[in-house]
Design a protein that fits this description.
Length: 89
């Protein structure tokens, strides 16, 4: 059984989240500046989210989802359930 450390698991989740936020933002034709301003966060913080290095609060994820016209769970739809599952705990 392949067990990931909590840090490794969190890193995987942040990576999936960041890639999805970036893809959805670009698909919507929006810049980081526009999205960050609408969500009440700094552009550099949005960049860190997209790069998988930030741990955004649920309120930030909700604001991003609203801005991008998706549900919060859509941020984790990159096959995260295949990469991060019960066997990884």
């Amino acid at each position: 059984m392949n067990r990931k450390s909590n840090a490794g698991l969190a890193e995987d989740i942040r990576g999936v989240l960041g890639r999805q936020v970036r893809r959805l933002r670009k698909d919507a034709g929006l810049t980081q500046d526009v999205v960050a301003e609408h969500c009440g966060i700094f552009r550099t913080y949005l960049s860190r989210i997209e790069n998988g290095t930030a741990n955004p609060r649920v309120t930030v994820l909700a604001a991003l989802a609203t801005m991008l016209g998706v549900g919060v769970w859509d941020f984790f739809d990159e096959g995260a359930h295949d990469k991060v599952g019960p066997s990884d705990f």
